[in-house]
Structure formats: C-alpha cells, structure tokens
C-alpha cells in the first residue's frame, strides 16, 4: 500500500525559472494494483516515480509505504522493497559483466554483499530456467557480457533482475519507450506475465496509450502535476483508446502543443 | 643483465601500485590523484620503521593499512562532502606531502645497512649461491603475485562484484539496495592500500625515502594500466590484473631504454608525459571507432 499525502514539489525554487510541479498532490495505491500512468511531457509522471523512489526530494508532504513514513529515507534504502526498470535499457544491468554475474548480483539483493563467492555455479540451471521463461534465447548466453546484448534483451533482463527478489512495488519508467514496436510488445507481455505471477503492485509510466488501456488494473492521466483521469476496475475495462486520446488531445491543445 | 633486473624489479614494484590505480581508474572510473601522496607515504612509514630496526615484514601490513586509511579519507571527502573526484585526490595529495614530511621527520631518509625485506638473515642463510643476484626480483615477484591473486580473488567476491558494478552502472547499485558511496569508499581504500604497499617495497629496494619520490606516480600507474589493458585487449586468457602487471614492466622498460639511449634524466618527466599523452590519444582513437561501429 502506497500513500502520497500533500506532496509539494518545486523546481529551481527562488529563481525566475521556479516551477511548481506538485501542489498538495495526493495519491493512494492499493496492494496488488497495476497502475498505468499516462500524460504529456512535463506532466509529472517521471517526477512522481522519482519521488516514490527517493531519487528526488520533496519540499513537503509525506510518502507512506504500508503506513510507514519513508519521506526522508535515502533512495538506496527504499530500493530494498522496490524494483525499478528504467527507460534506458543500460541502466538496469551492468554492461561489462556477464549475464550470470548480473543475475547473481540481483538475486543477492537485500543481503550484505560480503566476501563470499560472487557467483554460485550451482545456480546456473536455475538461472537458465528463469532466462528460458523470457523466450529470448538467452538461456545459452549466461557467460556473455550484457553489453553485447540488444536493447530488448537487456530490458527483459533488467525486468527479470528487478523482480528476482520479493519486492513490494515494481516501478516501470517508460520501460518500453526505447525499444522497437515488436520488442516493446514482447517486453510489455513479459511485464504483464511477471506482474501477474508475482502479484506485484506496479506503477507503469508509459507514452503508449494502448498499453495503458490494455494492461493494468487502473489508469491515471496526469496533467500539470494533477491527476485528471483515474479509472479502475470495470470503469477502466470500458475505457477505449479513443476516449483517452480525446482527453489527451484536449489537454495538449490547452498547452499549445 | 643488471638493466634487465632493475627493469623487472621496478616494473613489478610499480605493478603493485598500478593494481591500485587499476581499481580506481578502470573499475571505479575515478581518476584518483591521492596516489601521488599515498605512494611516498608507504615509503615514509617504511623508512621510519626500518631505521628503528623494526621487523621489515611488519612494514608491509602497516603501509597497506595506512594506505587504506588515506583512501577512506579521499572517499569521505568525495562522497560525504561532495567534492569532485579529481579535486578530492588533489586535496589529499597536497595534504599528504606535509604528512609524509612529518612522518619521516625530514625530506630525505636513507636506510642503508639496515635490515629490510631484501637484506636480512633469512635471505642470506637460505638463498642459494646461484640465485644471489636474483633474490630481490624473486621477493618482489612473490609479494606482487600475492597482491595480484588476492585482488583477483576479491574482485570475484560479492563485495568485489559490487565494486565493479559501481563503476559500470551506479544506478543499478542503488537499485540493488546498496549505498554506492560506501562501495566507492571501499574501492578507494583497497586501491590506496595497494599503492602504499608499492611505496613500502620501493623504499626498501631503493634504500631511502625522499619526499618528492611520489611525484608522477599516478601517471606511471595510469600509463601501466592503459598500456596493459590496450595491448592485451584481445587476449582473453589473461586476467586484466595480469595485463596491468605486464603493462607496468613494459612501461619501465621503455623508460630504461630511453635512458640507456642517452636521454638526460632532466627530460625524464617530459618523456613520461609525452608517452602518456600518446597512449591516451591512441586509446581514445580506438574508443571512438568502437562507438562509431556500435
């Protein structure tokens, strides 16, 4: 359960470029929800994720996870219960390390990284199984450096790594935006599969309205730091791409785009 | 023969230091100038301990430990006080100059006719006659190889893999619930420990400490790392640490060659700088090509 209460966020405070993004912003997300967030550029989607993860501080307000206040918790501490996949496939993996090493690192998340052996050879078959489920023919490439994989493969690996350990939240930051349409589709299906299997509470920012309609149990549209559309359950199922697009166009015209 | 031996000796001593530079420059992507201060610091501590007739074996862990502390300081300046990486090193390097003077008590401290790791009863008694000329090289090789294998081992542990990850992708380290600042401090600590250990052995081989002996250490280290890693880029059987060691010996050989060809030692630093520039330019050339082809 995630609660944002009365969040205020200013950019460049005290300068002529001062920009108030969030004014008294509140949001409640239930356990098990898969929230798709859409909105134009600068509407605060990615800032929202950054605030939840602690990548950027808030000026006032509270962030509560299962009732516990984490507003002042450092980013790396929060990540103990959060898995995150970025838009840039390079950010979710270590390019100079092999797939095996990357998976070993990810599987150990939450425990101290001490002087024990970094890679457990006995785990190879287990990892191959996990990679096999991705259907990207990665299972035979355990000893290949991640840097030589394609963007789609890397992103799928990043997704796998982000969800290898039990996490309370999965944060997806336009994670299909840098991929070609087909690879994006594959990664989106994979995301849906993982979210369902592990029953993860997920927040996905996307520019793809169709994904936002098709996947997830709740849709949010953001505009200038406010939620202007919030549908879930049956209401969301009845929603069509055209409806969302119409609303989207409306706000875009308002902005002069 | 004497020339070859001295190249090997110095090359392998500097290799220990270069292993430290490898950690900061290649793994952490942190150009650490602390090295110019921590190398002579190891030498200063060693010279003082030797001149007080302490057990020479003790100088190794003490120098390493002191280097670790210095590395932690650089790390804290960078991580906690948020000073830029290059400047953190410069601050430490500048400060260490005085610290080293204070440790040694004066600018130059010779340790002739003292018991060192090279000159002691043990070596005299057990070194067979035919190895008489090679005792130094063998002792240096053993210490260097132990350092190298320990580092290899460390880089394969979970902590070591985290170190490699932080230079590669800081965001991932954060995502894995680990404080990247802490990992950087650990890396700088291990690196400067090795550098200081190099200084310790250098002082015992040269039989003196001089406060200016650290000038240019970082350049020698970087040159060794870059020579080693670019020459053996294609050779996959070699560990990178091995390439760095070989790079260091090659570098020393080049310098020795230049001197034996009649280059006045006044121009030494110019040659070093020119050689370093050449290596850097060749290195970036290749990187550009790689990017263009990607």
Report on the structure:
The complex is a heterodimer of chains A (257) and B (294). Helix content of chain A is 34%, strand content 24%. Chain A is globular. Chain A has one domain (2-255): P-loop containing nucleotide triphosphate hydrolases (Rossmann fold, 3-Layer(aba) Sandwich), CATH 3.40.50.300. By secondary structure, chain A is of the alpha/beta class. Chain A has 9 helices and 10 strands. In chain A, the strands form 2 sheets. Chain A has a 6-stranded mixed beta sheet with strand order 6-7-8-3-9-10. A 4-stranded antiparallel beta sheet of chain A has the order 2-1-4-5, with no helix packed on it. The mean pLDDT of chain A is 91. The longest helix of chain A has 18 residues, at 181-198. With 294 residues, chain B is mostly helical. Chain B has one domain (2-213). Chain B has helices spanning 2-27, 35-51, 56-79, 85-104, 121-126, 135-156, 158-168, 170-175, 180-206, 217-231, 240-260, 268-293, and strands at 108-110, 208-210. Chain B has a two-stranded antiparallel ribbon. Chain A binds chain B through residues 74-77, 79-80, 83-84, 86, 90-97, 101, 104-106, 108-110, 113-119, 162, and chain B through 154, 156-162, 164-165, 168-169, 171-180.
Which labels suit this protein?
heterodimer; A: about 260 residues; alpha/beta; Rossmann fold; six-stranded mixed beta sheet; four-stranded antiparallel beta sheet; 9 helices; about 35% helix; about 25% strand; globular; B: about 290 residues; mainly alpha; two-stranded antiparallel ribbon; 12 helices; about 75% helix; disordered C terminus
